[in-house]
Amino acid sequence: xxxxxxxxxxxxxxxxxxxxxxFWYVISNVLIRAVGIITAPIYTRLxxxxxxxxxxxxxxxxxxxxxxxxxxxxxSVGRAKLDFKDKFDGYMSAIQFLSSAFSxxxxxxxxxxxxxxxxxxxxxxxxxxxLFFYLMLFPSIDYMQYKYRFEYKYRxxxxxxxxxxxxxxxxTVSLLLFAPGEKGFLKIxxxxxxxxxxxxxxxxxxxxxxxxxxxxxxxxxxxxIGLPMIPHxxxxxxxxxxxxxxxxxxxxxxxxxxYTSGYTIGTLLMFITNAVGQAWLPYFxxxxxxxxxxxxxxxxxxxxxxxxxxxxxxxxxxxxxxxLLFAKxxxxxxxxxxxxxxxxxxxxFYTNYVNAELFHKKTFLIALNSCIAAAVNIGLNAFxxxxxxxxxxxxxxxxxxxxxxxxxxxxxxxxxxxxxxxxALYFLMLIGxxxxxxxxxxxxxxxxxxxxxxxxxxxxxAILRKDDIIxxxxxxxxxxxx
Length: 482
Fold this sequence. Notes:
Elements lengths: L1 H9 L4 H32 L2 H21 L7 H7 L4 H26 L11 H13 L1 H12 L3 H25 L4 H28 L5 H11 L2 H22 L2 H14 L1 H23 L2 H33 L11 H23 L3 H26 L2 H25 L7 H20 L4 H18 L1 H15 L2
Helix pairs in contact: 2-8, 2-13, 3-6, 3-9, 3-11, 3-12, 5-6, 5-7, 5-9, 6-9, 7-8, 7-9, 8-9, 11-12, 11-16, 11-17, 12-15, 13-14, 13-15, 14-15, 14-18, 14-19, 15-17, 15-18, 16-17
């Protein structure tokens, strides 16, 4: 009897499986990001702000073109796991082949029509070749990790992330210290080589297991969901990255380096919220498929509450993190952190509504909302950045994400006519956290007030939510630390 009970608890889709998966996703993401934090002081001392801006500009283009080259087929995986239960491996192999074939066509066209240095994106031809060759392979990492995620194979998923992270850090630091050449380009190579190698491994394994390359049914299914998401993906890139391009145009690479450094610290929070979201999504899909909306509503409320708490703690600790990690010339970037962290929280909230839209395959709604928010953000950037500097871009991005939250809520509540969450409570939580976070930023020059205040808040919350803490501790004792 006990064995059967344990089996039910641990099977994919069970609450405990999701909890364990989420716990290890969070731990692994924190550890991975800790490596990045430890190496950040090395990078800021080995690279000028202009060289940092050059490498980050490459990363921006990877993000932008991966949306197009990958055809956004990745968004179909969650629902396909339910619709093609016994053919899932073949489905993954087929959509991988489709996206890589399309990327190869793009690579060939770029090499034909942009034969000279500086003709595209102001990069040398070799960098352009690396960019698009990388885009041909890189989606396979996402496919493999999504597959593992929806199969609750968190160990394999985490192993891929840890190996890529460790290899990237070791190679990048080695190149910057010992290899001759332009350091911005060396930083790019340090990122591309380990990820590209891992992508080849993922590609071969997905193809070997699925053994399906051309399948009209799978392709049409994936394209129906994926193609409308291309405007969504591009709009999100604009929402999160257009500020970098606009800062570069109005000021220069040094300001880009300051902004992206602060932005990087601000998005550390995203590694935790994304990890929670990654563990939650398979559980959400399966519970909604079974019609267990009340379970979704109550468990999701707890996740959102702790997201707000974590965001406030993160904002309070940001100045110390910036001063420990970066050279003094980068300290000004601490003022970017609060609005970026709050924007991350908005993403954490609105993803709940996006999950519902994806489940019902209403990707057109997702794309429309993202385009509206991106257009508003561009207008805000054009008005505020020239007048108030690069820090204003962080606040316009926060505004864009909040607008996106409102739009996705409207889509789910009034278009899909679904009452899944405690909507009014969510908006109160979000507005309250944004207000408290911005007020906390005003205390940055006064650490003697800031830290006692946040510790007092944490103590009160620990008392109020002690039952949740006890549940997690018991789970660790019973299943993980056993």
